[in-house]
Amino acid sequence: MNRKYIVEKVDLTKTPLEKVWDDIEELSIDNYLWVDNGYEPITKAKLFYTDTHLHIFFKSYEKEIKATYFNMNEDVYKDSCVEFFVNPKPDKDDRYFNFEMNVVGTLLLGLGINRHGRKRFDIENFRDFFNIKTSLTKENFADFKGDFWTVEYSIPFTFFEESFGKLNITSGYRMKANFYKCGDETKYPHYGCWNKLENKEPDFHRSEYFGDLILE
I need a labelling partner for 199 at 20 to 30 A (CA). Which of 20, 30, 114, 119 fits? Predict the structure, then answer.
């Protein structure tokens, strides 16, 4: 099944960012694969776009979390992690970005056509560049006793264009993407996705199973 998500356009000069998310439709990362341990944390994602950025928000209902990586491009998928894989120009290019982020907002970011030989981006001040906001921090995550955690960030379209050339960001524009929830070395290893993967072994780098993001 090829899932589709309509990405709403928002004018942030009229609506404060903290108010926008309340009215944005969410999608569910609800296909858990490969591990039969019964651990399937409810995880949601939302997106909207402006003239300049694509905004992403994740919310995961987990009570036991793990964060051991704090530097860009470390193995955050081994921690409590959410991931956004996106091809911003699927009709012209087979490459895609992998934005992988743990519970405290540490980012692993690559570009390529599959899991092998991916280009890694080393962005100075990556938290500011992508405006990363998290409900937990490196300093306080160990005291977490809540029901859920969140991460939020925004990707400048100019960042996409540096690798893919000019994008025609207008109503009806299509990107291909998938959303994931994982934790390879957490107490209960798990692998969740939005658009279902059909491969038998754990591997999120399967762009043939990406769903559609359609700009409103």
Answer: 119
